[in-house]
Structure formats: C-alpha cells, structure tokens
Amino acid sequence: MAERRGEAGGAESNDRNAAPAVEQAASAESPVKGEAPVRGASAEFHPANPSQKIAKVKLVISYRLPLRIEPEVADIAERDAVTVEYVLRGMARDGREVLREMRGGRDVEVLAPEATSLERVAVGIKTVGEPMTVYVRPDTLAAMHHALGDPWSVMPRATVVGVFFTAIVVRLLAARRAG
C-alpha cells in the first residue's frame, strides 16, 4: 500500500495532486457570484464581450393574438394578395427574430405597457397556428417577469414570454399596416 501512495511523502503527494483540482474547479466557476458553474466555461469568459454566445432559454409558446387584430391581418393579407395564414406565419417569424435579439431591461421596457394590458385580457384572445419554439436570453426573461409585476418569477415562463411575443407581433402588424 505504501507503493500506491508513494514513499514517505504520501500526504504531500496528495496535497500536490489536490492543488491542480482546485485550480480547475476555480476556472470552471461562473464569472457571476451566486450562479451555478457553466459547463465548458473558462476563466476568459466575459459577459460584456459581444462576440461570445450567451446561453438562451428554450420555451414552447402558443401564438396568441387579440381578436381585435383579426380585421387588420385580413386587410394586410388582402392588400398584399396573400392568405391570412401567410401573414401570420411571417409575423411569427419576425416576432421570433425580435425576441431572440432582445437584450435585457431596456428592450423589455418598451413593450411592457402593451404586454401588461394583454396579460390582463384573458377574454378575446385567439390562439393562432401551432405552438412554436422560441429562444430568450435569461436576463431578458427576468426583465419580462419584473415588468409584469412578477419579481419572484412565479408565473410560468411560457406565459410571460407569450405575452411579450404577442406585444411584439401586435407592434409589427401596426407597423406593417402603416407602411
């Protein structure tokens, strides 16, 4: 057994082997105190560096629109000589793109009043199409919860993101109608 631990310095060799493990654990820690370590994270991780990818939250939401929007969608479809479904799919694609690009509180604040009003209106919401997968940055998701008056993040994430997605699509439709 002495051969496995080394000669008389068995305790010292264990201490020497433990030092690199501590360094590896320290380098794998998240740069933000209080967060869980991110797999594959390195000591060079800087969240302020825009070239590094930030992990996004993947959610499945329903594409829901207020019934008051239906005539506007029909007008756009008629003007562009396409079907209503085509307009809705295009708005969903554009809405997902805007949602992916949102970066935290400032982007959320712009949509907060409309999202809050949509969140309170349960009657008169129409589910359109099929459920869709969207990706949101964690800081944006936290800002969405906070903007809806849910700082403890009790509301389901898909509901919160769905309300903001609806607000985005309503704004895109209004811009399309005007232009």
Question: Can you offer a commentary on this structure?
Answer:
The protein has 179 residues and is mainly α. It has seven helices and four strands. The chain has helices at residues 2-5, 10-28, 70-80, 84-101, 105-120, 138-147, 157-178; strands at 57-61, 64-66, 125-127, 132-136. The strands form two sheets. Strands 1-4 form a two-stranded antiparallel sheet. A two-stranded antiparallel sheet has the order 2-3. Helix 3 crosses helix 4 and helix 4 crosses helix 7 (157-178). The longest helix is centred in the C-terminal third of the chain and has 22 residues, at 157-178. It is globular, with a radius of gyration of 25 Å. The protein starts with a helix and ends with a helix. The model is unreliable at 5-46 (pLDDT under 50).
